């Protein structure tokens, strides 16, 4: 069916939306027309630049190509918007007749500064990336004691699979039965927790302030700062949060345990630590580290208009650090 739009601008807006979605799901180097193509994408296509791929995808692409000395991939950096990464490979000498040597790779950084492009470690500036790559072609780059020739670029291919694409997984109607032995978390006895004030509601949980009693052990000084110290007492107490699964949602108890299992296996300074799970009668309770100011979204709504920009930036960096770790 035809679509009638009120203006050329509206038509281009729709095309841009569809084009962006296509780049996310099918082909990261695609555009429908020049009017909606991002300048950065056009520059990438002209120079054989990939998007911000992870290193393992770069190496996989280089391995798929014909084994050739001086093969390279150039891509945008994952961390720096104005940096490009040149990944070059070569083969190690043969260890035995008929056995190819292993692939070795090195990364060299190219920085965009204003209108110039500079290879790190070389003080010469180039007006375009193409000029820099043309000069590098046939050259040898040094990395420690290793030398890497720069000969042939591996540009993006239409519809190429990489971590730049978002794929939709077809839902499997057959239910998978999870083996409970695959779950891993600390089991906390009901007499080790004390439930105190009700703090609010989470997603299908009631949240309470609580105390976790932990038996002390000689030499266990690494966690001492979290415990209250009482003389001649082998147990110590930690301030915790108790997330009690609502009894009306017992159908998701397995997912609740899976979440606890996953979070018990990660540890980061900006992630709330999961101490374990307690089963108290019909109640399933996740025991988490107590965070002084509570959930971030609740705090921001409570302090709306009174939160300093600097604090927001600090928290954004902390969130980014935690997400990067995950």
Automatic annotation (TrEMBL):
GO terms for molecular function: ATP binding; growth hormone receptor binding; non-membrane spanning protein tyrosine kinase activity. The keyword Transferase applies. One of its GO terms (biological process) is intracellular signal transduction. Residues 193-326 form the Protein kinase domain. It holds the Pfam family SH2_1. GO terms for cellular component: cytosol. The keyword Kinase applies. It is an enzyme of class 2 (transferase). Keywords: ATP-binding, Kinase, Nucleotide-binding, Transferase, Tyrosine-protein kinase. Its EC number is 2.7.10.2. It catalyses: L-tyrosyl-[protein] + ATP = O-phospho-L-tyrosyl-[protein] + ADP + H(+). Belongs to the protein kinase superfamily. Tyr protein kinase family. This is Tyrosine-protein kinase.
